[in-house]
Every structure is written in C-alpha cells, then in structure tokens.
Inverse folding.
C-alpha cells in the first residue's frame, strides 16, 4: 500500500505559539489530502480538505485562520495551528488517496501528530 | 444528514468467541462502506470495503440494505484482534471524496 507520513509525531508548545505539522505522501502523488482531528476516545472529525495548488476547504465550525493549511506540492500538505491554546491540544491525522494508475479508492492515513499546548 | 452509527463503544469477548461489531448507516441509494482498524500505537488502516466482498484476517462484513447495516463479523476472535474499529462511508455530496466515520468500537479480546 501507499505510505503517508506525518511529522512531528509529538509536539509540545506554549500557549500563543504556532505549530506546523507536515503530511507527506512518500511513494505517490496526492492532489488532495484530508486533515482530521481526534479527541481522546472519540472518532475522527474531518477538519479540512487540502487541495494542491489551491485553497483548502474547511468543514463547518473549523476556523480557517486558526488552522492554516498549505498544499504546495503533490506530496506535501502542512497544517499550522496558529496562536495555539490548550483547547487545541489533540491528535491530528492526515490522509490521502492514490490517484491515476494507482487509484484504489482507499484512504491512507498518517501516523498522527499529538499536539499538547501548555 | 448522512451518518454512520456504531452503537457500542466497547465490546469485550474471550478468545475463540464470535464477534460482531455493529454499524448502521443513514442514507438511501447505494452506499459505499468501509471498516478501518487502528491497532495500539499504529495508524488507522483499511480492513475491508463492502464492494470487494473479501475476507481480511477472518473478518467479513455484509451490506444489508433492508436494515441499513454493515456489521463486521468474525467467527473466532483472536487476542491480536484487539483494536479500535471504525465504520466509515464517503459523503455523498462531496463526490464521495470525504469520509465520515462512526464513533468507533473498541474490541477487547481476552485470553
């Protein structure tokens, strides 16, 4: 299967700072990536769809100025949590599908990034 | 609104017992449904999808349109099956691009 990698896997920051999380498709190109947020013992909630070369589309209730998404290349999407607060502490997961000849419809997930805001 | 419902948060069974993890969906038409699994300290991964009608690691899931269900079953649970299981379906109004997940069921298989 295809591989999606996230970095960092864990990050601790002070309140008010910004944190960037990277999501890379290692062996395939992804025009679209998805960012999810997972609270403890809860399901994954889709935050936004990252589109290569254009603006991300955000789900209802997700602040686009708080969660900045950039998809500058076919293998990299970044999520920046700006002016982080303790309530932003969560597990952030990205995912992507293969495309073209490798398309299977399956969504491949990164290992997740745990953000803790002090 | 399109929803995927997993009524059980936790399912605890003994090794060798049959397992059924429930999933119900809420939209009409021909749904596309998936089961994803997350083992401890590992990433979420696809377990099976209904259109492939395959059996993975002994698990099967049959789409029942009459009951709008896609329950995951295994006749004899193994300890290594302990994990979080999520039922998921693509959102219809997004060109089937975005997935909506159920709340997940934790399966605990005891020796």
């Amino acid at each position: 299967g295809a591989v999606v990698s996230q970095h960092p896997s864990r990050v601790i920051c002070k309140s008010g700072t910004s944190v960037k999380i990277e999501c890379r498709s290692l062996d395939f190109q992804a025009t679209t990536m998805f960012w999810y947020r997972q609270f403890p013992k809860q399901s994954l909630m889709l935050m936004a769809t990252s589109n290569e070369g254009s603006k991300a589309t955000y789900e209802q209730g997700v602040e686009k100025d708080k969660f900045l998404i950039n998809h500058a290349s076919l293998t990299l999407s970044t999520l920046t949590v700006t002016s982080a607060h303790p309530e932003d502490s969560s597990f952030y997961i990205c995912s992507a599908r293969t495309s073209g000849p490798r398309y299977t419809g399956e969504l491949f997930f990164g290992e997740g990034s745990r953000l803790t805001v002090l | 609104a399109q929803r995927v419902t997993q009524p059980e948060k936790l399912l605890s069974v003994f090794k060798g017992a049959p397992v059924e993890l429930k999933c119900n969906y809420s939209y009409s038409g021909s749904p596309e449904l998936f089961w994803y699994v997350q083992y401890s300290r590992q990433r979420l991964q696809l377990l099976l999808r209904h259109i492939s009608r395959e059996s993975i690691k002994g698990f099967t899931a049959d789409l029942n349109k009459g009951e709008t269900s896609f329950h995951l079953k295994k006749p004899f649970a193994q300890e290594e099956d302990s994990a979080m299981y999520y039922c998921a379906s693509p959102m219809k109004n997004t060109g089937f691009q975005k997935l909506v997940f159920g709340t997940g069921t934790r399966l605990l298989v005891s020796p």
Chain B is about 0% helix and 40% strand.
